[in-house]
Amino acid sequence: MKNVYLDHAATSPVHPEVIEEMIPYLTEHFGNPSSIHQFGRRARKVLDDARTTIASSINAARNEIIFTSGGTESDNLAILGTASALMEKGKHVITTRVEHHAVLHTFHELEKRGFKVTYLSVDKNGRISLDELKASLREETILVSIMYCNNETGTTQDIKEIGSLLKEKNIIFHTDAVQAYGLIPIDVAELNVDLLSASGHKINSPKGTGFLYVKESVPFLPQGFGGEQERKRRAGTENVAGIAALNKAAALAMKERDERFAQYMNYRDTMKKIWDEESIQYLENGSNEYFLPHILNVSFPGVKTEVLLVNLDIAGIAASSGSACTAGSHEPSHVLAAMFGEDERTKSSVRFSFGLGNELEDIEYAARETAKIVKRLAK
Q1: Residue 325: active-site member
Q2: Catalytic member of 325, 337, 356, 377
Q3: What is the mean predicted confidence (pLDDT) over 333-337?
Q4: I need a surface site. Which of 31, 117, 307, 369 has the fewest CB within 10 A?
Q5: 3-state secondary structure 243-297
């Protein structure tokens, strides 16, 4: 039986060159980057080099990059760090109903702290209305957080237009770019983004590394204490080996970005073409105009998600029902619920996501096996 991993939006395998890059910092170069002796200085250079690479990849300054443990910490830090610094100016913040829980749950925490939160709705394509965003802005609005690419559907938002609007209003703008970073060009200056979150394990680096971009002029208070690392913004000894790996993964992602984009588009089209040939019914969840190609979310009418996923796993195919952070939940995806309400398609959706190690023959196998399973279950 063939094994095919199509859950890269949950986590990705570590690139062999990334593993090779980090090994010396797990063995011989073990110094603390805060130490002034040669062992510490060698570790500090790793951080400096990675900060340069990552800043360059989004057109930021080196001192605007904070290393974190991943996307969740980056989102938490961006939202809480900015909201706590600006709360005297106002306590109204805005996000969307389709954010990753790392953002949504942080806004729930802000509500407990007395902030007023507006949750923007989305249309059936998963896109927000700019008119609704404009209408939601108030004098006391201090922060807006809207994700770049949805982790369940692949739908993208118009980050540039949103950034332009918020810049005019002098409102801080954060975007969760975990699914977008490394796959499309990102220029924080052009997009007018003030804070941006990214995660290493979505770009073939180990779990436990990520970064947060914070524009130099943005008011920001640290949320952890105990050290002066990361220019006093994120306490704790840095994960040197992980950051070395992140540096390499980011460099590879920038180098191979266009090639990966085209490859995933081909995989996406191939799956749908085979399903059409097999004459099975499916509904695509997300925008067919504004999307990133590595995520394909579809519903198969009459087939329950959990049953389909179990049968796919038996066939050696790894897919998911959506965010890995809600795995095990039998509730319909909050993203699809925001898009379709109580429509039955929310109970028959599966997310296929592509990445390192996938070949065209893997995609063809997965598509045909999916078709066989759907035909059998639909009876």
Answers
A1: yes
A2: 325
A3: 96
A4: 307
A5: HHHHHHHHHHHHHHHHHHHHHHHHHHHHHHHHHHHCCCCCEECCCCCCECCCEEE
